[in-house]
Automatic annotation (TrEMBL):
One Pfam match: Beach
Protein name: Uncharacterized protein
CDD domains (alphabetical): Beach
Lineage: Eukaryota, Sar, Stramenopiles, Ochrophyta, Bolidophyceae
SUPFAM superfamilies per UniProt: BEACH domain (SSF81837), WD40 repeat-like (SSF50978)
Disordered: annotated span: 620-688
Residues covered by the BEACH domain: 317-600
Length: 1010
């Protein structure tokens, strides 16, 4: 038995797939080995030659021209089995009424791709097929399952799918690895390979430190991808689930070759990379990738494991990451990327792929013939006003129809799906068309044969809302799909005749266009001259759903908005229906932009930071976006695109869409200590810090007395204060969700301020006097002590929620984000990424331990936390879990490695980190805990005492003992009846001490300890 199908799977019907292939013999040729492939909807017989076929098939009135014969189950009256001895089994097909002759698609571009020959017989016949080399014990379960499938007794076609075992470790080393020094990075992983309309199952993937191997079910090499060739990757969907990964490569043979063997000269081949390409050319942004393969995984976590390995082992760019979208957006605003390439890459960022016809890239109609350019601010269905009025009247009528009260829509069809994509590409993808159409081409009058007529149909026909595909604008001429060749019938396909009698050949071009190539060049020129921003809003941005979609008449039938979340709440029958609807009728791209898209060339005119909105689930750390979490099935309430984390602030005015910064992709590097700071840069400030430590060391000893209000301000901030910093010279910094960072005097008078269009989530102070601020726009901003901007860059693929400095280096710090990732940075370079968090990170802490390693602790949204040890070489080990997500180290240096945690449950915990021999990661030990009877929001400590800011607006003062925590005092009115969101203790030159408290309503107050 062979598990590899010997014919192209696209020869089957749409959504049919091959299961198992057996060696068989036929009555007319008992000694000749043929192949029988059992499929989900048919049996396919592959004879040795067409002459063999004629000896057992009844006459069909014409010569048999194919040795691939398909018997649909519907054409067979009954299936029976018989055995002869212990080694031969016979399958009997009774009363066959018809069969199909399949024409293989690999005859080359010079040969036509013929539709399947459907042979309907005047009289039924019976065929016996004998299985070779198959025992009864092997064949009986097969036949029983086959009969169940044939009789429709089961709907799950997986009954015949035998789970394949991956290759053994010894087999991999002997047969797969190309070098004896090659090292395995991940275990053998089952994968599927997604082709247009089909998925090849039961393949395997092995990742090493040099290559990515994809193996067939029989463990032979299907494709080898050197890691050096991987330039880009992108997260993808498979059947509405976040299970796919597309890998873009340079100079790798097509995966259609069953066994790819790299040339011995490959290792010496110079492949252009981002650094060797001229900046701001289209090649710079695409990395000159020439091919891609789309893999599907059994689980999201197995996909993410490979993604993490590729990000560590290569310098690949993640198309679907927030930082990548930000790069592209910034390049577009600065006029550093063509419209064509920008659309191609944001299609990829939104989950569209040329390997998936149900999510094929979308491009806009620009104009037809000499008509004026299309209004790109309107969806294709709203261009014709009279047709739009008809759609609106129909929608009004739905309100009175039972079942449509909450799901009215304007358009019952979509602008992109597998059928629409193949409508345009019938001449370049005929095999896919035949598969989708059930073995034949569509009727000639329904085919793409005249460009202007297709445009008029999209304007006037209520069932036609097609947008275009990228081939209309691709001026390259490297394949049948590009440079206009997709408009030519170069394969002499039998596309039929129109009702007028005219034969369908090449597409009829607009008047005055001399050639297909000239036509594509004309389209490209018009695309580059068009202002595409309004159209991007409709397809990928703020106009895709919600109130903006309503305002722009951009509301489709509810099925195009299905997401993975919808599948989780559906029964099995509903799931299959939803998947079928999205595959056949189309699905919306992911939302990339939540504010109005800026115009090309406006980059210098837009202030601040504006980013693509990314909604991150617990697994897909870089999925950009399900920006519509919990998409509802009724089109009238298709949701907004705010991430499902913290509530975003209600701003009185709508912010302008400023341009994002453009971070350059950087390879992973090892963690190295930075050199000492230059003279006169941070030494003075560092001395001040050391001097101030002694003064403030025991500031909490004064808490046996009372608090006296020194200064208070309710007009500095309009939203929650997220952090307060105090320098040794008593300069004060405060940050807020209102987007501001302010420098204040010790009397809380404003010195200077800077603003961001998105909330500022946290800040930290460095020993050289500079500060770093994290933001909901995914960025990290570095400022001098005078709040002069030093730099700003993207730190995470979702909101950067927390930042904390490390005492080890000059500008070293840890960040956490809603993307569930914790990162260790030195200056603007990310040294280590920690992927173990399962929830959004809301707080981070870090300090040095033995050997220069860093202890990093992160608090997660769920109220739990975890810690890691990170070495100077970039190594990382998980220490363990903790309770609480508000975290504060007792000391940043020295032998005391205790820390405090707390959470919404009101429990304050004291932990200690123990470095254990034989376990380089060490462990966490809980020493003590106590209940402060209100949610713990923020903690500060001097080592002997702790002060806790609580959600009830009060403060708790605690003594820290060796084995217990004692609450000694409660101040209930500090927060002015709102929660304490930030606090910082300070020690004065006169030996006095105090605290500064920030609250949820933006109130800031300074208190003296007396």
């Amino acid at each position: 038995m062979s598990s590899a199908c010997p014919f192209h799977p696209l020869l089957l019907s749409y959504q049919e797939r091959p299961l198992l292939t057996y060696t068989v013999s036929l009555p007319s040729c008992p000694n000749s080995d043929s192949k029988l492939t059992i499929c989900t909807k048919s049996l396919v017989l592959i004879t040795q030659s067409t002459s063999n076929a004629t000896s057992f098939l009844p006459s069909s009135g014409g010569a048999v021209t194919s040795n691939l014969i398909k018997f649909p189950y519907a054409s067979i009256s009954s299936l029976t089995t018989s055995s002869n001895g212990n080694s031969v089994d016979t399958l009997k097909l009774t009363n066959i009424t018809s069969y199909l002759l399949l024409h293989p698609p690999n005859a080359g571009l010079s040969q036509p791709v013929l539709p399947h020959g459907i042979i309907k017989l005047p009289e039924p016949f019976t065929l016996s097929i004998t299985f070779q080399h198959t025992s009864i014990s092997e064949s009986t379960p097969l036949f029983n399952s086959l009969l169940q499938l044939y009789n429709g007794e089961v709907k799950d076609d997986n009954i015949l799918t035998q789970e394949k075992e991956g290759p053994t470790e010894d087999e991999v080393k002997r047969k797969i690895y190309k070098s004896v020094v090659e090292r395995k990075v991940s275990d053998v992983t089952p994968v599927g390979i997604t082709l247009p309309l089909q998925t090849l199952t039961n393949h395997f993937l092995i990742c090493t430190d040099q290559n990515l191997y994809i193996l067939t079910p029989s463990h032979t090499i299907y494709l080898t991808i050197p890691l050096s060739k991987i330039k880009r990757v992108a997260l993808r969907y498979h059947k509405l689930q976040d299970l796919g990964l597309e890998i873009f490569t340079s100079a790798v043979s097509s995966p259609s070759n069953l066994a790819y063997k790299p040339s011995p000269h490959d290792k010496n081949e110079l492949t252009p990379t981002a650094t060797s390409l001229k900046p701001f050319t289209d090649d710079y942004w695409t990395y000159k990738c020439t091919s891609s393969i789309l893999l599907t995984f059994p689980t999201t976590s197995s996909r993410n494991t490979l993604l993490s390995s590729l990000k560590t082992l290569t310098s690949c760019v993640v198309d679907t990451s927030k930082s990548r979208v930000s790069q592209l957006y910034s390049a577009y605003l600065s006029n550093k990327i063509s419209n064509y390439t920008y659309l191609w890459l944001i299609n990829s960022a939104a989950g569209r792929s040329s390997n998936d016809l149900s999510r094929y890239p979308i491009y806009p109609w620009i104009r037809s013939s000499d008509n004026p350019p299309r209004d790109l601010s309107k969806p294709i269905g709203a261009i014709n006003k009279s047709r739009l009025e008809g759609f609106k009247e129909r929608r009004e009528g739905m309100k009175d129809i039972e079942g449509f009260e909450h799901s009215q829509f304007l358009y019952g069809t979509f602008y992109s799906n597998a059928g629409y994509s193949l409508f345009w590409l019938v001449r370049s993808k005929p095999v896919e068309v035949i598969c989708l159409q059930g073995g034949c081409y569509d009727h000639a009058d329904r085919m793409f044969f005249d460009y202007d007529k297709s445009w008029r149909s999209c304007l006037d026909n209520n069932a036609d809302l097609k947008e275009l595909v990228p081939e209309f604008f691709n001026t390259e001429d490297e394949s049948v799909s590009r440079g206009g060749r997709f408009l030519q019938n170069v394969r002499d396909l039998p596309l039929g005749r129109l009702q007028s009698g005219e034969k369908v050949e090449d597409v009829v071009l607009p008047e005055g266009v001399k050639s297909c190539r000239a036509f594509v060049k004309k389209n490209r020129k018009e695309l580059e001259e068009a202002e595409i921003a309004p159209w991007v809003d409709l397809i990928f941005g703020c106009g895709q759903r919600g109130e903006e979609a309503e305002r722009r008449d951009n509301v489709f039938v509810s099925s195009v908005y299905y997401t993975e979340d919808d599948l989780k709440h559906a029964d099995e029958t509903t799931k299959q229906r939803m998947i079928m609807e999205t595959e056949e009728f189309g699905v919306c791209p992911d939302v990339l932009f939540v504010m109005e898209h800026g115009k090309k060339g406006e980059g210098a005119k837009i202030d601040g930071m504006w980013m693509a909105a990314v909604a991150t689930d617990s697994c897909g750390r870089e999925r950009s976006v399900n920006g519509t979490p919990g998409r509802k099935s009724d089109a009238s309430s298709i949701g907004g695109s705010t991430p499902k984390r913290e509530s975003m602030p209600d701003n009185p005015t709508t912010p302008k869409p400023p341009a994002p910064v453009t971070p350059q992709p950087q390879p992973q590097t090892h963690l190295q200590p930075q050199p000492n700071p230059p003279p006169n840069s941070s030494t003075k400030f560092g001395d001040e810090v050391a001097a101030a430590k002694g003064k403030a060391k025991a500031w909490l000893s004064s808490f046996g007395l009372n608090l006296t209000l020194l200064h208070s301000s309710s007009n500095l901030h309009t939203d929650s204060i997220t952090s307060v910093l105090v320098t040794p010279s008593f300069s004060i910094f405060s940050t807020s969700r209102d987007g501001s960072t302010k420098s204040l005097t010790k009397d809380l008078n404003l010195v200077t301020e800077v603003h961001s269009s998105m909330p500022v989530s946290d800040a930290t102070l460095f020993s050289n006097g500079s500060i770093a601020c994290s933001g909901y726009d995914d960025s990290l901003s570095l400022y001098s002590e005078e709040l002069v901007s030093v730099s700003k860059f993207i730190a995470h693929d979702d909101a950067t929620s927390s930042v904390e400095s490390c005492s080890t280096f000059d500008i070293a710090y840890v960040t956490g984000g809603w993307d569930c990732i914790v990162k260790l940075w030195i200056k603007e370079e990310c040294k280590v990424e920690l992927y173990d968090c399962e929830e959004a990170v809301v707080n981070v802490e870090a300090r040095e331990v033995s050997g220069g390693a860093i202890l990093v602790i992160a608090g997660e949204e769920s109220g739990k936390g975890r810690g890691w040890i990170v070495t100077r070489e970039g190594g990382q080990k998980v220490v363990g879990r903790i309770n609480g997500n508000a975290i504060k180290m007792i000391h940043k240096e020295g032998g005391d490695k205790r820390f405090l945690t707390g959470g919404s449950d009101g429990v304050l915990n004291l932990y200690e980190y123990l470095e254990e021999r034989g376990n380089s990661a060490g462990s966490f030990v809980k020493i003590a805990s106590t209940n402060v009877h209100s949610g713990v929001r923020v903690i500060d400590t001097d080592g002997k005492h702790a002060i806790v800011g609580c959600s009830d607006g009060g403060l708790r003062v605690c003594e820290l003992h060796e084995d217990k925590i004692v609450v000694t005092k409660t101040f209930s009115s500090v927060g002015q009846n709102t929660g304490v969101s930030s606090l910082k203790a300070w020690g004065g030159e006169d030996g006095g001490a105090g605290i500064i408290v920030g609250t949820d309503d933006g109130h800031l107050s300074a208190w003296r300890l007396i």
